[in-house]
Amino acid sequence: MPHLRHVIQIICACIWCLLASGIIFGFAALKPVLVQEGVYADVCPTGYNSNIDEPCQQQDMKLNSMFTVSSALTNMMALPVGWILDKKGPRVCGLIGSFILFAGCLMFINGNSLKSYVDSYLIGYVALAIAGPFVFISCFQLANCFPKRSGSILALLTGSFDSSSALFLVYRLTYKKSQNTFSLSKFFKLYMLVPCFIFICQIMIMPHTSYKTLGTVAKLGVEELDENGNIISDEPVINSGQEGRENDHNSRNEEEPLLTRRKSNLEIAAESGLKQSTGGIFGILHENTALEQISSPWFYLMLLYAGIIMVRINYFIATIRAQEEYLLDDKEKSIALNHIFDILLPIGGVGAVPFIGMILDNMKTLNVIKLLGYISVLVGGLGIITHSFTFNLVGIILFALYRPFYYTVVSDYCSKVFGFTTFGTVYGLLTCLCGIFSISQNLLDKWTHEHFNMDPRPVNIFIVGMTIIFGLALEKYMQYQLKRRTTEEASRESEE
């Protein structure tokens, strides 16, 4: 019963994505537990009362740095994971992810005994971050189990990723209910079941090889056509045995540029419709090589824009409690907002999916890019308003919806501008470089602690300013290129 097997594969993938793919982004919920457990308390000045639930300045910066490095690495891994996925298949990716996740658990379990030799908590959190892309990206090919439902399957997997930050919220609530007896060591001993579950699933249930590249999956989602430009059917195409090996052979052909085959009439019609609906953006660099695409302003202007927004997102997650405490000047209200944020972050990832779909389907790509910037500026603007619980709450709600919107827009932009043949390379490189760029939030956090007396407003104003500059640069370039493309096409038509 191949259909049943594919359903089981999708269910298992959703379970482990929910429990492992993006758990590091639940840092705001985990941080109070880390403070209570005395993680990095040894860096505090002599005489500091470590029994209170407020970290000292040095401890706070070190905890934030742990998240900064980890969040950067989880994005930087997109490129190598994509390469391993194409070369070795999803099983190898999943197994690597399970081993790294298991190693991360060991670091937290033995944190106290190892801290004299290594920074076990940093290594452990980094391991959780690196494992995430391995266990998440390797699931994308499951969208091809039922091609006509590929969008729904991708939405399930993405929703599971966005909701995975809730894991540490559940742990924090359990920790509090146990009166702080459910320690980090106990939690991660229990959590070791997750990498074991992934390992067993990869060996027993999941497909051995990848039959679709990331570019083909992107093509399914955008054009609703297969890699040969044909209408997708309800028949699953991932099978075991000889047929699977034949499909695996076919997948190697998918790595060849689309220009080596003639486009189908359906493909031409679909691309024409997408070109119109995106305002002329679709296909603008599809015939260029990956090197030409990466060298173009379409890539590096988007890199600057996406990079500063990623800094905004990760900086907000790492410092939400400290920001609200300064802006509201009320510890109880800041704790309440922190708890609301912990709940809204995973809910927003799922709740935003239908709205994101409607926006991408009904707005031109240039307008989507503008909207991305407007919301980022609005979130940043709300982050400089003092003594207003309502405005800060609105900012948190917007942020929870904005985060999944950002990731989807960047992926959508890459598929429509650069195409499907080079999608894995270009999108992976963009995400990787954004991850490197986001390490700069360590410097921003240092400024906030050492120069601005914990006032988050200067950093928020700086990020807003950079977002406006990079956003305007990208938007003006897009407008210029679209106008140029329209003029060239009109000139060709008049000559014909």
General shape:
globular
What structural class do you assign from the helix and strand content? mainly alpha
Structure summary, number of beta strands: 0
Gyration radius (Cα, Å) is 23 Å
Return the CATH topology of the largest domain.
Growth Hormone, Chain: A
Helix proportion? over 70%
- The CATH class designation of the largest domain is Mainly Alpha
Classified in CATH, the superfamily of the largest domain is: MFS general substrate transporter like domains
C-alpha termini separation: 55 Å
Give the mean pLDDT.
Answer: 85
Order of helices and strands: HHHHHHHHHHHHHHHHHHHHHHH
Strand content: under 5%
Largest sheet: none
Distinct helical segment count? 23
Number of domains: 2
CATH architecture of the largest domain: Up-down Bundle
Note poorly predicted spans.
Answer: 238-259
Membrane topology: Multi-pass membrane protein
Main location: membrane
Transmembrane segments: 6-30, 91-109, 121-143, 155-175, 187-205, 298-318, 339-360, 372-405, 417-439, 459-475
Subcellular location: Membrane
Task: Based on the model shown, name its key terms.
496 residues, Growth Hormone, Chain: A, 74% helix
Explain this structure.
Residues 232-257 are annotated as: Disordered. The protein is mainly α and 496 residues long. It has two domains: 1-44 and 54-273, Up-down Bundle (Growth Hormone, Chain: A), CATH 1.20.1250.20; 278-482, MFS general substrate transporter like domains (Growth Hormone, Chain: A, Up-down Bundle), CATH 1.20.1250.20. The chain has 23 helices and no strands. The longest helix is centred in the C-terminal third of the chain and has 39 residues, at 457-495. Mean pLDDT is 85; it is low at 238-259.
